[in-house]
Amino acid sequence: MFLDALMPDTAKLQQFAFLWEIGLVLVSVLVAGYLSRRANQPAVFGQLLAGVILGPAVLGWLHPSPLIKELSEVGVILLMFLAGLETDVSEFRRNAGAATLVAVLGVILPFIGGWLLAGLHGYPTPTAIFTGTLLVATSVSISVQTLRELGRLRSREGVTILGAAVLDDVLGILVLSLVLGFLSAGEGSGLGSLVGLLVRIAIFFVVAGAVGRYLLPGLLQWFDRFPLPAARQGAAIACALFFGFLAEAFGLAAIVGAYLAGLTLSAAGGQEELYHDLEKTAFAFLVPFFFVGVGLSVQLSGLAGEGLGFIVVLSLLAILTKVLGCGLGALLSRFPLRSALGVGAGMVARGEVGLIVAAIGLDRQLIGPELFTAMVIVVLVTTLVTPPLLKLVFRDGAGAPSGAPGSVT
What we know:
By secondary structure, the chain is mainly α. It is 77% helix and 0% strand. The chain has one domain (66-187, 199-397): Na+/H+ antiporter like fold, CATH 1.20.1530.20. It is built from 19 helices and no strands. The chain starts with a helix and ends in a 16-residue tail after the last helix.
């Protein structure tokens, strides 16, 4: 009788099992991120692997659940809101011509290449189109850190990569919005549906952009007067969520609205303190659920036979189309060949942006688990190869130094 009283209540433990899951996610992300940094890799690489290892693919300690999915949704909205806040529009203006060519060609080649490869591999047209969309994304946070270590961040190549990344984010979101809207409209819907989609997108960007540019800064300042802790931060998070909901109401992805909310606030200026405060909140609690949630969805069953071959080819295509597309844009902007290759290499990594797009495709059943796993591996591969590629190109101080003609110092 006494021993029975000491035994835990199994039903109650199951009721509060979510506390164990949340704690396990947060601790695993901290440890994995630390180990990844110690291995000279970005923290997101280890955080993603944490989800794979803890999930059904390896240990089976965590499984996809409604709680993790919903926290992941909020986390990715905040992640894109922060990406918008972090975007420096002036960086693009400083080297606009070269950055535009680099970004546009760096979107066109991966999109066409991914579409054709998936089509040749036997995937249906909607999946093939979305595969091209998956390869469009670029995340230059890894490149920025590598260039900083090499002393090349303020060189002409570094500024061009930063400027192209700004436009690449906008173009990537536009491509994603168009593809999601067109595919959701159904096949055979005709030119009218496409025109209607473009009109809806234009209305959304005009209305949301105007609200974000002219109303949000004043609204946040008004909340900042509230005698409450973190009132401004709470209002900013609410705005990101409202913009995400508005985007979904227009048939777009919620991340589009969140990114636009952050981008318009960034253009208004004076949001540095808000960014740093929200960054701590988001990365301490909510964003980790997105990375781990992505890892939990990985299935290793498609890594044998034809599946492995497709992943290898897709990874090579993801690298080459960015290097060639962005490099060609730099060459047309009169960069030397080696510098152009450096610009292309700096745009290779897909990072968290690629994971976001892949997760949306899986959620909307545009891609299956096998292709999702392939894309997660592509993100890992492009993340890993970017630092050594940049070091190879810029070894011994190669490239156009700061202060060279056309450079920005």
